[in-house]
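Changelog-linked ticket: NAP example.
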Amino acid sequence: MINKLCIIGVGLIGGSLARALRAGGHVREIVGYSRRLANLQLAADLGVIDYAEVSLAAAVRGADVVVLAVPVGSMADILTELAHLAFDGVITDVGSTKGNVVGAARTALGKRFPFFVPGHPLAGTEHSGVEAAQADLFRGRRVILTPLPETDPQALARVQALWKAVGAEVVEMSVEEHDRLLAASSHLPHMLAYMLVDMLVRRDDHRAVFAASAGGFRDMTRIAASDPVMWRDICLANRVELLAAIKQYRNDLGALVEALERGDGEWLEDTFARAKRAREALNDK
Ligand code: NAP
């Protein structure tokens, strides 16, 4: 049981975690903190948090768990502020990139770094803000924790228990592995969706193109409706791994162009068949 949970950034992910812990009876009191009072008021009105604090010091005072759920580009500033505040709780985060967040935590937190447990729930939607928060968002989903050799075992156990309590499967990996895998599985697909929609909308006939679109286009581009600030931050934070993944994709697109120029049906069919088998195997999991 968590006595006082402090959510910093009560949006889709922070709000969903609050709702999930509340629904399961795992928390006594939830306080929210973010920049805009209107957002916090809405979170309180929706019953996602019990009350809002406009001072970070007041928000974390007496908290046994503090969850950072702000865009990854804002984590360093919050961690720096947290370092000067008096509280004993465990700090964790939900950021989509781990290298920059862990680096910022190490620099900012000093002696308290062992009580920071880096995390990333593999769950979300293209919607943002507390209105989109759902109590069951993490049920049956994976959460990656990237503990460091210095991480305090009890702090790690507390964060593992928190995610298991909301129905998630907890896995662990290194920071580097996380950022390399997520560049390929999440960050690259978001780039492709954004760039595809942006390319099409700049065509003179884009209205006709969109009117002629069907399920395939919608499936492929749903995530292009995701929050631009969040994705700007993810790109910048993981740009080395993301660049490697984009360049690999660009090479493969080059091979596709060459196959089309050659009229090479065998190449096309073999490539599509390999992808179809891999995609179907994913459905079975
Ligand atoms: P969101 O719905 O936009 O919520 C972000 C929240 O952070 C807002 O409540 C915002 O409120 C607050 N905030 C932003 N900058 C802040 C700052 N400098 N100081 C204090 N509060 C600040 O975003 P989200 O989708 O929940 O994403 C939150 C984190 O989860 C990100 O790190 C993201 O990478 C990660 N994540 C997202 C997904 C996903 O699918 N969306 C999945 C897994 C992980 P104010 O505007 O009032 O400050």
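Closing comment: Example verified and attached. The chain has a mean pLDDT of 97. Residues 80 and 109 are 7 Å apart (CA to CA).
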